[in-house]
Specification:
Radius of gyration: 19 Å
Number of helices: 9
Bound molecules: zinc ion
Number of strands: 11
Helix content: 25-40%
Strand content: 15-25%
CATH topology: Rossmann fold
Structural class: alpha/beta
Shape: globular
Largest sheet: 7 strands, mixed
CATH superfamily: Vaccinia Virus protein VP39
Order of helices and strands: EEEHHEHEHEEHEHEHEHHE
Strand order of the largest sheet: 6-5-4-7-8-11-10
Distance between the termini: 44 Å
CATH architecture: 3-Layer(aba) Sandwich
Length: 319
């Protein structure tokens, strides 16, 4: 595995968006806090376009080894079979968010039914929900674990192990769901343009990314869960992602926080080893902290917590 090198000092680091060499340091000595893979990375900031990115850049093959089989997105399960009490508690946790921002992802009109592409489909939960509501679904994921699970969970969908760059189809989609994926990819500009080309005129893109200008990011610093080094390659500010989408030809429809109530408890777990001087086993500590902090954390949405942002944009009918 690559280690952080002195590429910044030698001036070889290039912005992945505007290709400028005017690069500053955002954070030094970042490590894989979630899975403790070896290595150190630096977060760099482009002085020209303000994008923040992880350096050194790992190849797609190298990056795959940083996604273990127990990576959370590959193991999401449906909540249908949860006990009634758990279902009620989940609703209660979401209540502050829904009274301010409405439902979580709604696949009903104004999105309507049609062809949906889920990029980074994980275990296929969104496609399952969409198919039940009358959508025809396609899904891609780079992980063989995720693709195997999604094919089992959603046999009706067309699922392939593919990158967005490598995904070739004649189909044009009415909705592309691109949630918690763009920050994992090397070329944000090219990937947003690819989404634009894959959409039918009037088609919509829902993109969800961590927002480094949020108060959570400021409070937790490099131990904020949204940085997730080295899996997150690009770290977006709200205005930077919006500008990238608009430069690709999209029109803005909506920007709101995405619901992710466990982000505060997960960041606290990542912070704990520094405070308590011992290592907290992530999976065990997560359950405890999640239960303890989830209700006060959910109230932060009423106060405008935008640690993760969900942006809905539309491809114009004529451009
Ligand atoms: Zn740049």
């Amino acid at each position: 595995m690559k280690q952080a090198n002195s590429s910044l000092e030698t001036g070889k680091v290039q912005c992945p968006v505007c290709k400028s060499n005017e690069i500053g340091t955002y954070f030094q000595n970042c490590t894989d806090l979630l899975y403790q893979h070896p290595g150190k990375w630096r977060l760099c900031e482009c002085k020209k376009c303000n994008i923040v990115f992880t350096d050194p850049v790992l190849s797609e093959e190298e990056l795959l080894s940083y996604y273990p089989e127990n990576y959370s997105a590959y193991n999401k399960k449906r909540s249908d079979n949860y006990p009634v009490l758990i279902k009620l508690l989940r609703k209660a946790v979401r209540f502050p968010y829904t009274i301010r921002f409405g439902d979580l992802l709604s696949l009903e009109p104004p999105f309507g039914k049609g062809r949906l592409l889920d990029i980074g489909c994980g275990s296929g939960l969104i496609m399952k929900q969409a198919i039940e509501q009358g959508w025809k679904c396609w899904g891609i994921d780079v992980s063989p674990f995720a693709v195997a699970k999604a094919k089992k969970n959603v046999p009706e969908a067309t699922i392939s192990q593919d990158t967005l760059e490598g995904f070739a189809t004649e189909t044009r989609f009415d909705l592309i769901y691109f949630s918690h994926v763009l920050e994992h990819l090397h070329n944000p500009k090219e990937n947003i343009s690819k989404c634009f080309n894959l959409l039918a005129p009037g088609g919509k893109l829902v993109v969800t990314v961590p927002n480094i200008t949020s108060f959570e990011a400021k409070i937790f610093g490099k131990r904020w869960i949204g940085f997730d080094v080295p899996r997150h390659l690009i770290h977006f500010r709200e205005d930077v992602i919006m500008q990238l989408l608009q430069e690709s030809g999209f029109c803005k429809l909506k920007l709101r926080p995405a619901f992710f109530a466990s982000s505060i408890s997960e960041s606290l777990i990542l912070l704990l080893p520094e405070i308590l001087r011992y290592k907290v086993l992530y999976s065990q500590a997560a359950r405890y902290f999640y239960g303890l902090i989830i209700f006060p954390a959910s109230v932060t949405y009423l106060m405008g917590n935008k640690s993760i942002i969900e942006i809905t944009v539309q491809k114009p009918y004529v451009h």
